[in-house]
Amino acid sequence: MDFDLKPEHQALRRFLREFVQEEIKPLVKQIDRTSLVPDELLKKAAAAGLFGIPFSQKYGGMGAGEMGYCILMEELGRADASTTAILGAHTGIGVMTMYLDGTEELKRRYLPDLCAGRKIAAFALTEANAGSDAASIRMRAVREGDSYILDGEKMWITNGPVADVLSVLAITDPSLGARGGATCFAVESKWEGFSAGKREEKMGLHGSPTAALKFDNLRVPQENVIGKVGLGFVTMMKTLDVGRVSLGAATLGGAQAALEAAMQWAKMRVQFGRNLANMQSIQFMVADMAAEIESLRSLVYRTAWLVDAGRPFTKEAGMCKLLGSEIASRCIDRALQIHGALGFTRDGWVERAWRDSRINEIFEGTNEIQRIVIASELFQEIGVRIRP
Amino acid sequence: MSFMDNMNTTPEPRDIWVVAEVGTHGKPTPLSLEIVGGARMMADGLGCYVHAVVMGSGLEAVAQELIAAGADRVHVADAPNLEHPDARCKVLSELLAAQPPEVLLFGATRLADELAPRLAQRFDTGLLAHCIALYMDESERVLIGTHPVFDGEYYEVIACPSARPEIATVEPNTFGPPYLDSYRFGETEPVAVDLTGFASRVSMTGPMDYAPLGVPLRKARRIVSAGRQAGDFELVMQLAGVLEAHVAGAREALDEGWITEEQVVGAMGESVRPDLYVAVGIRGDTYHAFGIRDAKFVVAIHPEAGVPLLKSADAGLVGDPPKILTELLESLK
Amino acid sequence: MKIVVAIKQVLDPRGFTVNRKAEKIFVNREEYIINPPDRCALEAALRLKEAAGAEVIVLAGGPERAGDALRQAWAMGADRGIHLTDKLFAGADGLVAAKLLATAIRKLADVDLALTGDRALDTGAGEVGPRLAEALGWPHILAAHRVEVSDGMVKAIVAVGKQFFAVQAQRPAVVVIASGANQPRYGNAARVINSYREWNPEVWNAADLGLAESDLKVAVEKRGQAFPPERQPGTLLSSAGELVGLLKRQRVI
């Protein structure tokens, strides 16, 4: 068993680490304060290939697979959660839906621009009445000739206000509901009938634009159906599944950065005649953080390996997201405690990370849903079917 | 015939040669004199001679000081078209081919950067570059040089045991000031410079205006930083200019309106890792100390003797910062 | 136009710490990187390629791991990467390195420019550029910040002290790029991946270069290490003059 990353992935990590530390990290405070990830930065990221890391090179992707994508998300997570959210929503779920289930023709039409960062993607599933209960979406897609007319509203859509192409789930057969009667569509925001609401002002992730979306009798050609008509819910769940792994990687990066920052502070801060590093209470916190991070690291990269190897990974993906979000929250919270008042000021680093990390336990499927997913998988293995 | 005439017709590498440079007022640079002095000490240990070579124009008064510093013979190549490094390279290599040195020393200057490696390659020999320590091991009769690596993280000790000449470029303050003896006897020998038919393949014009790529504060090699007690921020900026350093400050400098947010050094600002950090009027609490934990050399200037930064700095000066800065600017001229 | 860039792999200084008191180097993480000044040289070459069209060929000597440096250079946009490797090249000093590079450049034929970084981090010498020029019989330019080519010449803006000058040299020439002259590009993720999947550096050994052991005699040998003086926190001085003296002695300025 070889636990080392393959040489190309090691090289990819070095490449990404350098880019993120040089180009993104210095802008972190500014991004949070101005609620904006600068266009300049996104252009540089696009030129470096950051918008298409996992996808096959035959569609203009970078060909690094899920492993490479997790490496990207970890490196981004170490620096800035807002940029991570933009790239994560775009790559991990926005483009991924088309990549997993789109026709060859659809992929060739959209993926090159998306992988090159010339266009940005989003994933539009959630509605006001359908969060964890995703199956109760109400958006309709009515067949009309050789197209579908979409009508409805989505809510809390990351990249919504800036996306060029969105993967959208709508009900095509109301008698069946979402399970069996929903279809996935690739929708272009420039089409007549699309509008984004005001950008949400959130607790954290200020640089990541999120909004409600309105689809007002928007015509979508039938060529833009992703996957099979009626089986859109399965497509979306499949995408969310794999998206969880990379979210685990992002939280791993955030937790790691928190640990490193806490240790640097513990080295320098002297109270009662010694530095914090020489106090057991701090040592225990640091040890606990490191142990959790190490276990998360093994989990995330093994799961990425399962994905790339074509093996089942739903249970592990749920664990990545569940543990990752909780470990990151704990580590960042401990880091805040170790930093003391410095952890509470907006001029420091920890405060922003603390606000940014809270959403991890909620979006991409709440941790409660993750527990249900994991339990379902487990019981299924011994013959018990759990109704969601 | 001069008492020093060489009776051999086949050149054996011998003697210590120094390529001296001329500064303003047509006199040898302090570094050149230092190296001639160092060469003198080595030559006395080996029982050989010291030669100095000077190239350029208007060199009438140059030999005297070189002889006082220890040169036995000064070779003067005085010609109008000797500005270009490759013209000097030609003249020097012809001279040295006719009289091959055992040791050839340069000051670590731009001219040396141009000439020393080319000569080393031409003579199929080694180069001990940027030496901060250099001595002749008399038992082995080999020059031992110490030079910084990884930007001075540590040093390497090197030698060129068999190839000759042994060529070295030497940093200032390696040999220490030379002993100048104006009664010392030495000869001056003009070098015939024939550059007919020689066309330099490189031409240079200028100086010109050019703004090089800026360096962000977190990567700055030198920083001068102001704190509450800095007194006169103008002086802080002047010092930064002279040292070619970035200007920064502790948090309170922002409150004083001297610096911008991007220039704050500390836990609530930037962490820096310069080779030199001059803290003017900064107390140095943990929050600031955090920002300079990776600085290589910290200088603290503060009116109060008991402040934390004076206890941790590599060098501290207690006193009125504007006064100290004025003296510092004077000393750096 | 053919441009050769000579690069070197050095130990990543972020992976080791020096304990001056114990006079020891602790390598926490042994990793190798492209010598940062050489990345500036490669960047300069790639900009010339974009401006004037050129084939950029990267040469690197060193053990097997130097292949990683060449792959990274290719990922940045170089067209060819050649690994100069042989038992006989081990321990090469500046003299031998210049001979190797000159021989390789002559073998490549019709090379217009050779670009190098201004020093190697692990030797601090800055000798290879001019040595190479001498070995090839070419002119050289030092401390170049911006480089252009036109009608058989290479033009550069060059730093001398704090000033800048316009320099012109006939091609073929060696141009030594100043550190910090440019911000080297990162490359592209697909090329990073492909540099390990579909690409391999060419390998030239002593026989390929027609070099025998007698051609590769090293002149400089390492005798040991030394360490800067231990830091003395809390040192108090009495005058500005004393401070300047200390800074000069400690080689801080």
Topology diagram in text:
The complex is a heterotrimer of chains A (388), B (333) and C (253).
Chain A: H1 7-24, H2 28-34, H3 39-47, H4 65-79, H5 81-101, H6 104-115, E1 121-124, E2 140-144, E3 147-158, E4 165-171, H7 178-181, E5 182-188, E6 194-196, E7 210-221, E8 225-226, H8 232-268, E9 270-271, E10 274-275, H9 280-308, H10 314-339, H11 350-357, H12 367-381
Parallel strand pairs in A: 1-4
Antiparallel strand pairs in A: 2-3, 3-7, 4-5, 5-8, 6-7, 9-10
Helix pairs in contact in A: 1-4, 4-5, 4-8, 4-9, 5-6, 5-8, 8-9, 8-10, 9-10, 10-11, 10-12
Chain B: E1 16-20, H1 30-46, E2 50-56, H2 63-69, E3 73-78, H3 85-98, E4 103-107, H4 110-122, E5 127-131, E6 133-137, E7 142-149, E8 154-159, E9 166-170, E10 187-190, E11 202-208, E12 222-226, H5 233-243, E13 246-249, H6 251-255, E14 276-280, H7 286-291, E15 298-302, H8 308-312, E16 315-318, H9 321-331
Parallel strand pairs in B: 1-2, 1-4, 2-3, 3-10, 4-9, 5-9, 12-13, 12-14, 14-15, 15-16
Antiparallel strand pairs in B: 6-7, 7-8
Helix pairs in contact in B: 3-4, 5-9
Chain C: E1 2-7, E2 9-11, E3 16-19, E4 24-27, E5 32-34, H1 36-52, E6 55-61, H2 66-76, E7 80-84, H3 94-108, E8 113-117, H4 128-136, E9 140-150, E10 153-160, E11 163-170, E12 173-177, H5 189-197, E13 202-204, H6 206-209, E14 221-226, E15 236-237, H7 240-249
Parallel strand pairs in C: 1-6, 1-8, 6-7, 7-13, 8-12, 9-12
Antiparallel strand pairs in C: 2-5, 3-4, 9-10, 10-11
- How many separate domains of chain A? 3
Q: Helix- and strand-based class of chain A?
A: alpha+beta
Distance between the termini of chain B: 46 Å
Provide mean pLDDT of chain A, rounded. Answer: 97
Any low-confidence stretches of chain B, pLDDT <50, length ≥5? none
CATH architecture of the largest domain in chain B: 3-Layer(aba) Sandwich
Could you tell me the strand content of chain B as a percent range? Answer: 25-35%
Which fold does the CATH topology of the largest domain in chain B refer to?
Answer: Rossmann fold
The CATH homologous superfamily of the largest domain in chain B corresponds to HUPs
Number of helices of chain B: 9
Largest sheet of chain B: 7 strands, parallel
* Backbone structural class of chain B: alpha/beta
Question: In which range does the helix fraction of chain B lie?
Answer: 25-40%
Q: Round the Cα radius of gyration of chain A to an integer and report it.
A: 21 Å
